[in-house]
Design brief:
With 405 residues, this protein is α/β, with parallel strands linked by helices. It folds into 2 domains: 178 residues, Flavin prenyltransferase-like (Rossmann fold, 3-Layer(aba) Sandwich), CATH 3.40.50.1950; 208 residues, CoaB-like (Rossmann fold), CATH 3.40.50.10300. 33% of the residues lie in helices and 25% in strands.
Length: 405
């Protein structure tokens, strides 16, 4: 795949001792297929899950495990050499034990020593049981790693090897490779927004009917948070207006939490006054109940008729107020006639760009780790961004719009 961003990249793939290690075999194969040069480094416990012979056959090179070589001809400085050699160090899966070692600087195995010697980015894909993932010790270790610039790709939710259901699953191999690609793409544009002020909105809004019920949508905020994180990596001063989502604030980003469409309207209009680039990824409810009941409505109250009002059109108001030196980007989630609806919104709301999501396309839409979008510019240009991890989509999207910011 000569056009792949991974072609010719030197990647250390660390595999640690967790059941998710079996997915690393597919990650290794996909990285090689994309043209990357991959050096596998296993922890001793990883061999309990994936045989060294299998890993070596897929990588077509020696698999490294031992910190101390078994013969005098082996290089005991291998960890230093790999730290210099690698464009990226990836650990997938990263167990709680390995995260703890990296956070506190222990290097009693080769992989940990390589990470301490790394000159380029380190990316970890934590995978463990839900309670281990949520434990304060693990979360504290992750916070330390993030503060030092380690990229943490959070695990997915679903059935776990323990038989429980929760957060802790290693993403599928294609998503792992897409995230790796996104990190490498982002490295190529580290400061393309230096000195710029960027406003991003993300997530859903909630329009309450009573204290326990509301109208909303399935948005997780992942796309908007990825845009905010990418803009911060490129040197921007980023403000993120976030609806109710369960996502950590990206490093270097100022966050404002909101709940309703009215809240978003107020916050976005205030923050946009100073922004050079505004990216409105939030999935805002178009309607809200006219009446909000002070107490929970009971079944005994019988059938209810819900009267709805239009919520404020924040994007249209931003378009009306937009300065000549400001770039405004809207998002459109559509199910039919996507291009026509997106182009109509682009013109009607006086946007510079509109980003179209088609809900029915595989890998796109709500609740996915990947996305596929189509970007239309007010100047008539169109950019079809391929299916990729949302971090990579964010990087490619900013490539398109940053030149206008």
């Amino acid at each position: 795949m000569p056009d792949s961003p991974l072609a010719g990249r030197k990647i250390v793939l660390g595999i640690t001792g967790g059941i998710a290690a079996y997915k690393s075999l597919s990650v290794l194969r996909l990285l090689g297929k994309a043209g990357a040069e991959v050096q596998p480094v296993l922890t001793p416990d990883a061999e309990r899950f994936v045989p060294r012979l299998t890993v070596g056959a897929l990588a077509a090179r020696e698999v490294l495990v031992d910190l101390w070589p078994g013969d005098a001809s082996g290089s005991w400085t291998k960890h230093v050499e790999l730290g210099v050699w690698a464009d990226l160090i990836v650990i997938a899966p990263a167990t709680a034990q390995t995260l703890a070692k990296l956070a506190h600087g222990f290097c009693d195995n080769l992989l940990a020593a390589v990470c301490l010697s790394a000159r380029n980015a380190v990316v970890v894909f934590p995978a463990m049981d839900h309670d281990m993932w949520m434990h304060p010790a693990t979360q504290a270790n992750l916070a330390l790693l993030r503060a030092r610039g380690v990229v943490v790709v959070e695990p997915e939710s679903g059935p776990l090897a323990s038989g429980l259901v929760g957060t802790g699953r290693l993403p599928e191999p294609e998503a792992v490779v897409a995230a790796i690609t996104g990190v490498l793409v982002a490295k190529e544009h580290p400061a393309s927004l230096a000195g710029k002020r960027v406003l991003v909105t993300a997530g859903p809004t909630r329009e309450h009917f009573d204290p326990v019920r509301f109208l909303s949508n399935p948005s997780t905020g992942t796309m908007g948070f990825a845009v905010a994180a990418e803009a911060a990596r490129r040197g921007a001063d980023v403000t993120l207006v976030a609806g109710p989502v369960a996502l950590p604030t990206p490093d270097g980003v100022r966050r404002i939490d909101i709940v309703s469409a009215d809240d978003l309207y107020t916050a976005a209009l205030r923050e946009a006054e100073a922004a050079d680039l505004v990216v409105m990824t939030a999935a805002v409810a178009d309607y809200a109940p006219v009446e909000r009941h002070a107490h929970k409505v009971k079944k005994e109250d019988g059938d209810q008729t819900l009267a709805l009002r239009r919520t404020p059109d924040t994007l249209a108001e931003l378009g009306r107020r937009k300065r000549s030196d400001q770039t405004l980007v809207g998002f459109a989630m559509e199910t039919t006639d996507g291009e026509a609806h997106a182009l109509g919104k682009l013109e009607r709301k006086r946007l510079d760009f509109i980003v179209l999501n088609m809900l029915g396309e595989p890998g796109a839409g709500f609740g996915t780790t990947t996305n596929r979008v189509y970007v239309f510019g007010a100047d008539g240009r169109r950019h079809d961004l391929p299916l990729a991890d949302k971090a990579e989509v964010a990087a490619r999207l900013l490539d398109v719009v940053a030149g206008a910011a």
